[in-house]
Specification:
Elements lengths: L8 H21 L7 H15 L4 H9 L1 H30 L4 H9 L4 H18 L7 E5 L6 H10 L5 E6 L2 H14 L6 E5 L14 E4 L7 H12 L7 E6 L16 H4 L2 E7 L8 E7 L8
Parallel strand pairs: 1-2, 1-4, 2-3, 4-5
Antiparallel strand pairs: 5-7, 6-7
Helix pairs in contact: 1-2, 1-3, 1-4, 4-5, 4-8, 5-8, 6-7
Length: about 300
């Protein structure tokens, strides 16, 4: 990536703002966000830009710039759509493989595979730090998409046949693709199962899970995320953990933010840990424990 040339704080802010706006306008003018050399280049440029960590004052000025504030919600929507298209594209490539070995080799070539591996490793270590004796056996992942890499990485990281991952997505096509993909990879339906439902749906029985993940793209804004969390926690057992993916610094232009506030207590959650990576891992991680009994509202 070409470095941003700064000649003082004001110039630095302007350079960042102009780069962000340029990426946004290019993406918003694109007829679609399916993977292509130009689309891939734009997203790589945007992610690289937002992965930088300027000082707090510079970051605050960039994020509060009226032009950035104006485009931020739609930019996150474009990122969400682009991520879905990329994952669906690679999931289909894996599904077309003739053998389990070929499918697993194809999965390793997904451009962000290493990032997912490192993100899940960070999250598993974070969980172990707050619950060292936690006998984790059952996971639910809300917003798993067509390429359920988090669940696949969890299964590989824990390397236990007793671990099961329940993947939930509201998009029926994503679920169908993910089921076909896991079959191509050779995963057992007992350890990797799927359900088509929205994250807040009462049709999902969350009371049997040790850990429930909330994907970064579930909920388009902080308010919506809070509403979904409230619905989810009502159906979880006390002592279970909620792992929520969030973002910090300029990365909040890519993903909605989980606000860790006193309001979490009102829905039966007690925050335990927040991890903000400063390296190539883009997502932050918020871990909270469920304190309210199943079925109890705020």
């Amino acid at each position: 990536m070409v470095p941003i040339a700064c000649h003082g704080d004001g110039d630095c802010v302007s350079c960042y703002v102009n780069e962000i706006l340029d990426c946004y306008y290019e993406l918003s003018r694109s007829p679609d966000l399916k993977p292509s050399p130009s689309i891939n280049c734009l997203f790589e440029r945007l992610v690289g830009l937002c992965s930088r960590i300027p000082d707090e004052a510079t970051t605050a000025q960039i994020l509060s710039d009226p032009k950035v504030v104006d485009i931020a919600p739609h930019l996150r929507k474009l990122c969400s759509d682009g991520e879905y298209q990329l994952e669906a594209h690679w999931a289909r490539k894996v599904c077309c493989c003739k053998t389990h070995e070929e499918a697993n080799e194809m999965l390793l070539t997904f451009p962000y595979h290493g990032n997912y591996v490192d993100l899940v490793r960070m999250e598993m270590n974070a969980i172990a730090s707050v619950k060292p004796d936690f006998a984790t056996r059952t996971f639910a992942f809300l917003g798993s998409g067509p390429l359920p890499l988090t669940s696949l990485c969890i299964s590989h990281h824990l390397q236990s046949e007793c671990v099961s991952c329940h993947n939930v997505d509201q998009d029926a096509t994503a679920i169908t693709t993910a089921v076909t993909l896991c079959r191509a990879l050779g995963h057992s339906p007992e350890t990797m199962c799927f359900q088509c439902a929205s994250a807040g749906s009462p049709d999902i029985d969350l009371g049997c899970f040790d850990i429930v993940y909330l994907a970064a793209l579930v909920g388009g804004c902080s308010t919506h995320k809070h509403e979904i969390m409230a619905d989810v926690v009502k159906r979880m057992k006390p002592g279970a953990l909620v792992v929520m993916r969030s973002a910090h610094s300029l990365r909040r232009l890519l993903y909605p933010v989980i606000e860790v506030t006193e309001d979490m207590a009102s829905i039966g959650l007690r925050p335990l840990l927040v991890v903000h990576p400063y390296n190539h891992i883009v997502n932050s991680c918020v871990i909270a424990v469920v304190e309210s009994p199943c079925g109890c509202g705020p």
